[in-house]
Amino acid sequence: EILPSSIVVHIIYLESQPESNPVITKKRKYSGIGQVLLAFGIKLSIDNGFGGDITFEAKTPELARHYIKDFGAITLPVFDSSMPPRLLVSGEAAKDIFSKYLK
Predict the structure, then answer these.
(1) Confidence (pTM)
(2) Count of CB atoms situated within 10 Å of the CB of 47
């Protein structure tokens, strides 16, 4: 989602196959799907002048911890406690993810 008033790219829905979700299964069928989706969002952010910044919601607290630990995401404040955790990938974390797929 890129809005005229935005300063980041917001990924509306981030999902990978349940058999590949690291918080659901120990033996993953596919690896790296979520990170590729984040890298694509980072590319859109760069292409639209937002410096690689992306935001998204984690569906569960376990996924939020995964994004923080494995992708360098930081938690953003939410104003409604019923909302899922909102996360930001920016700066070096975005550069590290994007660089993995840059050829």
Answers:
(1) 0.78
(2) 11
User: What does 14-83 look like in DSSP terms, one character per residue?
Assistant: ----GGG-TTT-SS-SS-SHHHHHHHHHHHHHHHTTSTT-EEEE-SSHHHHHHHHHHH--EEEP-SSTTS
15: alpha, beta or left? (left if phi > 0; alpha if psi -120 to 50): beta
Which residue do the tokens 């993810």 mark?
97
Question: Cα separation of 36 and 16, whole Å?
Answer: 10
Label residues 76-92 b or e (16+ Cβ within 10 Å = b).
Answer: eeeeeeeeebbbbbbee
One digit per residue, the tens of pLDDT, for the chain of length 103 reads: 676 777 778 777 666 566 666 666 777 666 777 888 899 999 999 999 999 999 999 888 888 999 999 999 999 998 888 888 899 999 999 999 999 987 6
Residue 92: φ, ψ to 5°: -60, -35
